C-alpha cells in the first residue's frame, strides 16, 4: 500500500522577555514556502524537512508537501501571523486530503499572542481537519512541553545534540515510526513528565560530556525496554515565561505492548536523573575576565573564539549589544572580527556609502538600551558589502539557504564588524564570508551565540571563551520576573523533594 503523507514545518522559538513581536515578515525573511516550493528548497539539506523528504522516498510514500514556515527566534508570534500561516496550512490540508499520516517539524517553544502553548494550539487546529491519523513530530531539545501535546501527537522525537547536528536523523527516525504506525505494526502514544525545574540538563549541551550526556545515556538504555519506541529529552527554554518552561521528557510507546502507566515510569526515571544533576551547569565568565584572558593570550596562528552568550539572537536576543565590542576597543585588541551585529539602520546607511569610504555613525544598542550597552559612535571604513544571501556550510543546516539582508563589513579600530539587516545566530562560517571575512585568519573572532557556534568554529579555535556581557538572554534566571511559570520551581524556589 502506498501511503499519502503530508509534511509540514511551523517552527518558532519565542522569547517573551523581548520588546519585540514576531510578524509574518520574519517568517518570509527566513522561510515561508508552500507546496512544491518546500521540496525544491529543502530536498538534499540536513534539515528536518530534508530528512522527511528522503524518508518518504525510501518508504515509497506519496509525499504531499504542505508548508514550511520558520522564523528566527524572537518575540511571541502575532495573532495575525499565526492565523495567516495556520490558515494556509489548514486550507492545503483540506484541499490535498485525505492523508494516511503527517510529519510535522516543530520547535516546541512557540508562544503566540493568544496562547502560551503555540504548538498545541496549532496541532489542535490540524487535528480538526485531518482527524485521527498518525502524526509524528520533531522537536528542538529546547522545547517547553505542555501536557496537552500528549493527546495531539502519536510520535515525538527531539534532537539529541546541541549544537543541533542531528535534525535530519531526528526526522528520519520520526518517519520510520510513522511508517510503522500507518502500516499497523505499532500503536504509538506519547506520555509526558517534567521535574520541578526551570534550569537543568546543562541547557542541553552535548559537547562537554556533561549532565545532558548522562541523561541521554539513560534515555537510550530505557529505549531498550520492550514497547518503548523513543525517549525524548528536552532541556527547555528559560527565555519564555510560560507555565511549562523547563526540562521535560516525552516517551513514545507502543500501546500494543505496554501500558501508559509503564511508559510513565520510564519517563519519571529520566526526570529523576535530571533532578539529581540539577546543580551541574556550565556558566559563562564575566566580560572583564574574558578581556583579560584575551590580552594575556599568546597567539598560535589560530583564533580565540569569543561567544557573546547573552546577546544570542538564536534565543531571541537583539544581536545589537555593544558591550563586547566596546571592551575590545578599550583594550586595544585588533585583528578581530565580530558578528553578526544586527542593526538595520546602520546596514542601510553603510550600504549606501561608497566602498572604501570613511563613515562616522552610531551602531547598536538601539533596541533596548537597558541591556548590553547603548549605541557606540564609531568611525570606520566600509570594506565590503553584500546582499546577505548565503548557503549554510554546516555542520548545522548544511545546504539550507539563508538571507541576512543587506550587510556590510565595517572596519573600525582594527576590528571587522559584520553588520546585518536580519538577526542571525553565528553558527556557520559562511555568514562571515558573505562580507569577505575569513574567520581562520583572525586573532579573535566574536560570535553572538551560546553553543551552536561550536560546530563550525571550535574546530578552528585556539581557545574558546564564553562570556555574559549583560544582554537580554543572560543565563541568570533570577534577574527575570516570571509571572506565568508554574511554582515552586528550581532554582527560583526552595524545593524539598
What does this 3D model show about the protein?
With 497 residues, this protein is an alpha/beta fold. It folds into two domains: 273 residues, no CATH class; 190 residues, no CATH class. 28% of the residues lie in helices and 23% in strands. It has 13 helices and 20 strands. A nine-stranded mixed sheet has the order 10-20-11-19-12-18-17-14-13. A six-stranded mixed sheet has the order 2-3-1-4-5-6, with helices on both faces. A three-stranded antiparallel sheet has the order 7-9-8. Strand 4, helix 5 and strand 5 form a beta-alpha-beta unit. Helix 3 packs parallel to helix 6. The chain starts with a strand and ends in a 29-residue tail after the last strand. The model has no long low-confidence stretch (mean pLDDT 97).
Q: Helical segment tally?
A: 13
Q: What oligomeric arrangement do these chains adopt? A: single chain
Quantity of strands, as a count: 20
Strand composition percent: 15-25%
- Shape field: globular
**Fraction in helix:** 25-40%
Please state the CA-atom Rg, rounded to the nearest Å.
Answer: 23 Å
* Whole-number tally of structural domains: 2
Main sheet overview: 9 strands, mixed
Low-confidence stretches: none
What is the compact description of this entry?
It contains 13 helices and 20 strands.
Amino acid at each position: 500500500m502506498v501511503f499519502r503523507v503530508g509534511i509540514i514545518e511551523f517552527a518558532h522559538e519565542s522569547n517573551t522577555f523581548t520588546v519585540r513581536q514576531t510578524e509574518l515578515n520574519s517568517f518570509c525573511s527566513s522561510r515561508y514556502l508552500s507546496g512544491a516550493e518546500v521540496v525544491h528548497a529543502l530536498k538534499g539539506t540536513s534539515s528536518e524537512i530534508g530528512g522527511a523528504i528522503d524518508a518518504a522516498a525510501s518508504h515509497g510514500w506519496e509525499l504531499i508537501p504542505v508548508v514550511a514556515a520558520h522564523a528566527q527566534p524572537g518575540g511571541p508570534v502575532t495573532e495575525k501571523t499565526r492565523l495567516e500561516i495556520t490558515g494556509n496550512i489548514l486550507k492545503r490540508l483540506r484541499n490535498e486530503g485525505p492523508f494516511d499520516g503527517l510529519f510535522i517539524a516543530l520547535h516546541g517553544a512557540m508562544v503566540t499572542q493568544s496562547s502560551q502553548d503555540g504548538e498545541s494550539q496549532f496541532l489542535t487546529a490540524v487535528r480538526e481537519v485531518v482527524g485521527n491519523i498518525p502524526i509524528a513530530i520533531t522537536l528542538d531539545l529546547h522545547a517547553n512541553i505542555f501536557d496537552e501535546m500528549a493527546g495531539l501527537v502519536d510520535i515525538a522525537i527531539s534532537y539529541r545534540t546541541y549544537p543541533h547536528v542531528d535534525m535530519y536523523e531526528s526526522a528520519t527516525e520520526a518517519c520510520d515510526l510513522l511508517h510503522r504506525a500507518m502500516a499497523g505494526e505499532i500503536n504509538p502514544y506519547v506520555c509526558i513528565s517534567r521535574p520541578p525545574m526551570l534550569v537543568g540538563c546543562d541547557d542541553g549541551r552535548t559537547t562537554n560530556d556533561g549532565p545532558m550526556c548522562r541523561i541521554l545515556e539513560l534515555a537510550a538504555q530505557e529505549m531498550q525496554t520492550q514497547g518503548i519506541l523513543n525517549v525524548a529529552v528536552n532541556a527547555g527554554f528559560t527565555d519564555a515565561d510560560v507555565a511549562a518552561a523547563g526540562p521535560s521528557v516525552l516517551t513514545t510507546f507502543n500501546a500494543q505492548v505496554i501500558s501508559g502507566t509503564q511508559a510513565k515510569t520510564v519517563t519519571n526515571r529520566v526526570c529523576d536523573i535530571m533532578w539529581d544533576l540539577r546543580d551541574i551547569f556550565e556558566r559563562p565568565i564575566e566580560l572583564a575576565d574574558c578581556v583579560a584572558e584575551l590580552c594575556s593570550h599568546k597567539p598560535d596562528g589560530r583564533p580565540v573564539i569569543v561567544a557573546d552568550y547573552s546577546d544570542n539572537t538564536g534565543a531571541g536576543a537583539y544581536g545589537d549589544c555593544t558591550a563586547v565590542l566596546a571592551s575590545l576597543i578599550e583594550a586595544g585588541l585588533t585583528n578581530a572580527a565580530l558578528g553578526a551585529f544586527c542593526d538595520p539602520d546602520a546596514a542601510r546607511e553603510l550600504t549606501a556609502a561608497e566602498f572604501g569610504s570613511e563613515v562616522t555613525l552610531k551602531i547598536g544598542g538601539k533596541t533596548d538600551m537597558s541591556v548590553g550597552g547603548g549605541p557606540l559612535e564609531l568611525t570606520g571604513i566600509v570594506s565590503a558589502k553584500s546582499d546577505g544571501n548565503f548557503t549554510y556550510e554546516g555542520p548545522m543546516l548544511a545546504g539550507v539557504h539563508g538571507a541576512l539582508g543587506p550587510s556590510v563589513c565595517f572596519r573600525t579600530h582594527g576590528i571587522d564588524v559584520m553588520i546585518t539587516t536580519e538577526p542571525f545566530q553565528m553558527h556557520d562560517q559562511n555568514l562571515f564570508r558573505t562580507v569577505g571575512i575569513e574567520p581562520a585568519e583572525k586573532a579573535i573572532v566574536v560570535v553572538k551565540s551560546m553553543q551552536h557556534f561550536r560546530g563550525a568554529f571550535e574546530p578552528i579555535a585556539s581557545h574558546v571563551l564564553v562570556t555574559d556581557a549583560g544582554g537580554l538572554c543572560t543565563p541568570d534566571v533570577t534577574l527575570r520576573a516570571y509571572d506565568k511559570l508554574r511554582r515552586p520551581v528550581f532554582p527560583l524556589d526552595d524545593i524539598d523533594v
